[in-house]
Amino acid sequence: MTGYSIADPGLAESGMKKIEWALQFMPVLQHFGEEYLESRPLQGMRIATCLHLEAKTACLLATLRRLGAEVSAAGSNPLSTQDDVCAALVRLGVDVFSHRGMSDEKYFENLGSALDIRPHIVIDDGADMIAMLHAKRRDLLDDIKGGAEETTTGITRLRAMEVEGTLAFGVIAVNDASSKYLFDNRYGTGQSVMDGLMRTTNALIAGKNIVVAGYGWCGRGVAMRAAAMGARVIVVEVDPHRAFEAVMDGHSVMSMMEAAPLGDIFLTLTGNTGVIRKEHFDIMKDGAILGNAGHFDVEISRPDLENLAVEVRGMRRNIATYVMEDGRKIHLLAEGRLVNLAAADGHPIEIMDLSFSIQLLSALHVAKNRLEAGLHPVPPEIDRAVVEVKLKTMGISLERLTEVQKAYMNSWRE
Amino acid sequence: MTGYSIADPGLAESGMKKIEWALQFMPVLQHFGEEYLESRPLQGMRIATCLHLEAKTACLLATLRRLGAEVSAAGSNPLSTQDDVCAALVRLGVDVFSHRGMSDEKYFENLGSALDIRPHIVIDDGADMIAMLHAKRRDLLDDIKGGAEETTTGITRLRAMEVEGTLAFGVIAVNDASSKYLFDNRYGTGQSVMDGLMRTTNALIAGKNIVVAGYGWCGRGVAMRAAAMGARVIVVEVDPHRAFEAVMDGHSVMSMMEAAPLGDIFLTLTGNTGVIRKEHFDIMKDGAILGNAGHFDVEISRPDLENLAVEVRGMRRNIATYVMEDGRKIHLLAEGRLVNLAAADGHPIEIMDLSFSIQLLSALHVAKNRLEAGLHPVPPEIDRAVVEVKLKTMGISLERLTEVQKAYMNSWRE
Amino acid sequence: MTGYSIADPGLAESGMKKIEWALQFMPVLQHFGEEYLESRPLQGMRIATCLHLEAKTACLLATLRRLGAEVSAAGSNPLSTQDDVCAALVRLGVDVFSHRGMSDEKYFENLGSALDIRPHIVIDDGADMIAMLHAKRRDLLDDIKGGAEETTTGITRLRAMEVEGTLAFGVIAVNDASSKYLFDNRYGTGQSVMDGLMRTTNALIAGKNIVVAGYGWCGRGVAMRAAAMGARVIVVEVDPHRAFEAVMDGHSVMSMMEAAPLGDIFLTLTGNTGVIRKEHFDIMKDGAILGNAGHFDVEISRPDLENLAVEVRGMRRNIATYVMEDGRKIHLLAEGRLVNLAAADGHPIEIMDLSFSIQLLSALHVAKNRLEAGLHPVPPEIDRAVVEVKLKTMGISLERLTEVQKAYMNSWRE
Amino acid sequence: MTGYSIADPGLAESGMKKIEWALQFMPVLQHFGEEYLESRPLQGMRIATCLHLEAKTACLLATLRRLGAEVSAAGSNPLSTQDDVCAALVRLGVDVFSHRGMSDEKYFENLGSALDIRPHIVIDDGADMIAMLHAKRRDLLDDIKGGAEETTTGITRLRAMEVEGTLAFGVIAVNDASSKYLFDNRYGTGQSVMDGLMRTTNALIAGKNIVVAGYGWCGRGVAMRAAAMGARVIVVEVDPHRAFEAVMDGHSVMSMMEAAPLGDIFLTLTGNTGVIRKEHFDIMKDGAILGNAGHFDVEISRPDLENLAVEVRGMRRNIATYVMEDGRKIHLLAEGRLVNLAAADGHPIEIMDLSFSIQLLSALHVAKNRLEAGLHPVPPEIDRAVVEVKLKTMGISLERLTEVQKAYMNSWRE
User: Are B235 and B219 in contact (CB under 8 A)?
Assistant: First the structure.
């Protein structure tokens, strides 16, 4: 243990209750935690993590601890860190470096502190920790057996590193597991973004024009749930197949310049930068509400908003109102950071049970098998095992192929 | 002004911001507030109100003030009262008697204090204030020109009083206006209950069995949105037509005894008592979550839960966990009180804009026209005006009948 | 038996099979047919009917016969008559006067022939038979114990007659029974109009702009199912509450002049005349498709279309293409007659099982109780019995109120 | 031209109208047909096709002709062949060998006749033609520059051939193009299967238990639309990720043995054999309806049904009723052949516009570039071009990445 740096260790009791609540809804993580409890396969492993430090993540970290690992944790976003959960994690023996509202400077300092554990394994969310390892902490590279990355955004960065020839160790693309992106990115994001939006604004969804930028797995989850709550959804996309899928799903599709004057609410989920910017702010309606659910806070240009505003006012919690020169107000949620994590509790627990079970089994895999440098898919047997256990805990039966059917699928003759 | 009794007048600043936020999304109330601003038609009127004291209600009360009335306010539910909003209301000149978490005893004392204003008009939510007037404060009856009632539950009680011959003054059934029940009860409740459920539990909705007791306007709103979020909905109903509507809407329908062992989440919206009780708790799954969205906290039998439990534990905010003798845990949200008000911010703002505009215009109507004793419908011109203004603020055009069409609708000859 | 006039008695075998098929899905009608089989309560009654003569209607007519009545039948729409079903009905002893594609002149002649039975009871669909009785066959009025009307359109006409003081006998408003309009008008129309539209055009629904004129029970059924198939729905309404319900249901709302240039498909369900007319045709897109699902073929102005067209061509079955002077093509389905009946098989069988069971029990009621002149609601015990039997045949249990709950609903004291 | 063998050349007029109707809704095929009209890039090419011979397919075949090819056509399914369209195709110069209801023997004879054209290119749907080429007409292999396969089923067979080392020429997997499977398999199948089911049975969808076997792209399209029409959907799957997606989409999931006694309607879309068989028929409800939408008529075991039945009766068109020994009736639609093609008009026109544009451009590609033996993906530029043209014809704008955004997507540094 290398120490910790958190807001207030005295909040542990509240954090422990949150963790206990979450754990009830994580039967898959519990299952694998118990399966490996006796053998303690992580004994001797040091694991550095950069994750959203709230209750569900804590269940993963606690499980890593119980299976024998030393674990350090930095928060992957200043606003998603929950201070009471951090306090509970410290009590559970995790070296935590984060507090809600930390500055960008402190954020990177904390990343560094978490790396001081000299990890064998890194578990990252957005790839900032892995980027730092390659940019400033190359001394640690030799110890590393492998890593795992949680997000689409992180995978995109790692792929860029791989193409460039920079990526120095093996990383499992947890995001790309079927058990992850099919559920977490879609149904998880779908529910949690609507939750964050509703609780933060108390605004009616039905009858609103909601502009969803990006129709990847996250975007379609949000579009699906927004429409389901009665909104008319406008999708902004760069990819023609995705755009036409949005049309087939009953949404309108147009460019952001066309959508800007129509939208009541804007949600960005592209993984890109400057998706909503000056030229769009200029033509928005008075009262437009903007939220981001992409990994980084660059999708909605806050610099542009600040340049345009003659006044910025806090109103409800997690809402900043930018008053334009012509009097129009534009409301930005959660400083443009992940609205589902910064202004709500992140994904539903049961969804993270799958994602974090993939993380757990990936960590076990890396502990046993040092990876070649580069991006690796989650081993298919892990991917399948996680969702099979999930179905089992729900009492759901799969159909089984008969021998005749197996043979039929492998023959081509009429 | 007769005084006030609130938690902390120092919270007014926060309450003022909440009110300002809400007012932006209430263009209809703003419209009528301005239309009548100069004439101050409530000058000299004393209005006692019993309502959920949060920001949207505050916009109604502030408007009544601005149009000339003296206004007192009691909270209609101990857990729906927001203390900062109460403080702001006091600053705006309303006599407020309520604080979050008040005891039942204090609740009735506050009702009495609000009545001390000696009202000409009462605006009630659930009919507790009107019931008290008839039971204990008959001295005040002579002054009363009329009242207005907001809820289905209140109307049911008032109708029982009317049948019994007890109801001593006229009450406008605001709940039964098309501009109210078609929207507030359905889309309002639909969104706000899902909001309360999600933010309180962080549980996944998709794939859950959600039991909805009652398929009236509130129940169908909740069932619609729960299904839209991916749940499988089981409806419990006593009325056969409503039951078959639920079937046609794609839900399962069964008795509560059949539903009890299947449900993951139970939501009650019946207006009745003991809808979920001992015999049902006995056969529920471990981990069942219970929430009420009916007006009173009698739909889920808390006494039965307390009798059965060997332990009661607080976990997340607004969740009490009852541990049964056999170890099963049953989680009760918000003490069985309105989960959308006690554990969230109540209905979306735009919905209450309609309901409270009906309230405002009904109060103006009563101020001019003392009502005969009994229940009265909202005057149709008021009902129509409110939604017409709403459509206008949204820039929506109605189709207009041509003269030919008007004639056609009144003729029967081929 | 007074005779018959149909296309071809030789088609009876095919009609009998259709009737047998339908009867399987009509357990409620079967139930009441058997309950009253022995007592033959219609013995001696003469019943004249004007209905859509297809298989489900035939099940009603056959049941009336089996319970002892003499029955005559005219088709209520030239295009909804199925000739093979007519032949089967003749074999079952019903006096049938109709054939598919009959002229307007023949239509009225057939109505007259059906009336020649000198009915005690008339069962009407659209009120043409009742109108004829009052206009030209007043000699028959004395025999009539009462009637029943199936549609919203018919009720509107009868109400106009009642207001005018013309209505000479009692008519049960079958349309207004909960067991009828809540299901037949909404879910029945919803499915059957989409069926008719899809099978006639083979056009894709997803991604289309579908304009629905009228948001009554029929219109909302169609809008609901169109959206469910992936369309973007535009609602045109004259009533503000209905318009705002459409907004809350996620649809766009505008006037027909605004909708005309946007729509790919137009569906009318208003009960009014000239809903789509010259000024709208002038600005429609090339390729627009028009279908009517209101009772009469006046909602889409065919005279206007014919005036505007330089050519009219038949393409697929039930489609007439009007070529405008500027080359634009406008496609009219089923000559502007009920698209679900003229271009498909009408409502789903199970829906008509409810509606026709109401018709059967209403006829039994009239046979026993001559009605006062005027419109009468369906007796509530009939309305309830029908849907209760339906639920029973589906194995669905209603919740039952406890004594405590009954008492609670009747008390107002806290 | 080698001749033709069709039901009745006299039906050409009706077929021509159907083709004209379809062509209006195929702007993408029209676009490419015109783009290449002058250069006639298929001049000298002989193309043998095995496809569903209805109007949309005819538009593809006519376009191939117009671009210079000689074209022969066999029907890919005895019940999907429309005789009037065949007659029209002959008039348009295509060598057609098919008639509705042909025997299995004749089906294969027709395949052989179509091959007699000695094709340079084969376009197949289900891979029967390609299989015949490898099994019995190896003399033709030398001439073949390449082929294209339309279906999931066909791809599965071709992949088995490839694994086995048998596949003797290159085949483009048209099915696997994004422009195809994302739309045709999902939204196309979703709509057309519901259309076929509704028009064939006139049964109500709302409130029914519909069992969907297979949750691939086709199955999820059908499940989505069935639920949208008010059904409760039960999914039967062998793959755990797909099964859990079905759960998240709000469906129930179970094995076929569990589903068999619950289902009112069963739809198979698995690509496998014997999906519903004796052990399931034995426990089905009286009145169960069975339809197949997988490529071959082997998914519902007709031999088992015939063994079990004491009587088989035709009722409505395209329905065979099997009466079990215990009196239960089981209704099989369209002889267990593709219910959307054999009992309706196949996919919506606009969907096939995309799929057949891919076919057209793939044929052009093969004509210019003889393929290596093996399965080939559709060239990405073709896949993209097709959907881009589609969006353009709809007037839909894509968002365009800025230079800053392109750079951002390629960098990994914070």
Answer: yes
With bands split at pLDDT 50, 70 and 90, how would you rate the model's confidence at D413?
confident
Q: Which residues of D94-132 are buried (b: 16+ CB within 10 A; e: fewer)?
A: bbbbbbbebeeebbbebbebbbebbbbbbbbbbbbbbbb
Closest CA to C274 of C331, C236, C310, C239: C236
Count the helix, strand and coil residues of chain C and give each as a percent rounded to the nearest 5. 45, 15, 35
Nearest by CB to C250, which of A231, A247, A248? A231
Give Cα B49 to chain centroid, integer Å.
14
Chains that touch C (3 or more CB pairs under 8 A): A, B, D
Beta carbons of D156 and D361 less than 8 angstroms apart: no
From the list D227, D231, D248, the residue facing B207 with the nearest CB is D248
- Span A195-216, average pLDDT: 98
Q: Do A229 and B228 touch (CB under 8 A)?
A: yes
**What span, in angstroms and rounded, lies between the C-alpha atoms of D274 and C8?**
44
User: Which value does ipTM take for this structure?
Assistant: 0.94
Please state, in angstroms and rounded to a whole number, the distance separating the CA atoms of residues A169 and D23: 56
Q: Nearest C-alpha of chain A: how many angstroms from C194?
A: 16
Mean pLDDT estimate for chain C: 96
How is D91-137 classified by DSSP, letter by letter?
HTT-EEE--TT--HHHHHHHHHHHHTT--SEEEESSSHHHHHHHHT-
Phi-psi region of B149 (alpha: psi -120 to 50; beta: other; left: phi over 0): beta
Nearest to C198 among D21, D195, D230 (CB): D195
Residues of C in contact with D21 (CB under 8 A): 202, 315-316, 319
Q: Which residue of C has its CA nearest to D227?
A: C228
Minimal C-alpha gap between D183 and chain C (Å): 10
Mean pLDDT confidence for D18-27 = 97
Q: pTM for this one? A: 0.95
Query: What pLDDT, on a 0 to 100 scale, did the predictor assign at position A315?
Result: 84
**Pairing mode of beta strands D288-292, D309-314:** unpaired
Which chain B residues are closer than 8 Å to D245 by Cβ?
Answer: none
Q: Are D179 and D354 in contact (CB under 8 A)?
A: yes
Flag whether pLDDT at D366 surpasses 60. yes
Q: Which amino acid is at C272?
A: N
Per-residue pLDDT band at B413 (split at 50, 70, 90):
confident
pLDDT, tens digit (0-9, with 9 covering 90-100), for B292-348:
999 999 999 999 999 999 999 998 899 999 999 999 999 999 999 999 999 999 999
Nearest-CB residue to C187 (from D188, D230, D394): D230
Q: What is the pLDDT of residue D412?
A: 80
The residues in C 200-219 lying below 8 A from A, measured between CB atoms, are: 206-207
- Nearest-neighbour CA in chain B from C158: distance (Å): 7
Contact list in C for residue D394 (CB cut-off 8 A) is 207
Percent of chain A with pLDDT over 70: 99
Neighbours of chain D (3+ CB pairs under 8 A): A, B, C
Residue with tokens 């889409």: C300
Torsion of CA B64, B65, B71, B75, to 10 degrees: 70
Flag if D207 and B252 touch (Cβ within 8 Å). no
Q: Count the alpha carbons within 13 Å of C407 in the hemisphere toward its beta carbon.
A: 6
Whether B187 and A203 lie within 8 Å, measured CB to CB: no
Please tell me if residue B263 touches chain C, with a CB cutoff of 8 Å. Answer: no
Interface of A with B in 304-323 (CB under 8 A): 314-316, 319
Q: How far apart are CA D62 and CA D71, in angstroms?
A: 9
Which amino acid is located at A219 in the chain? G
Chain D residue at shortest CA distance from A412 = D157
Average pLDDT over residues D26-43: 97
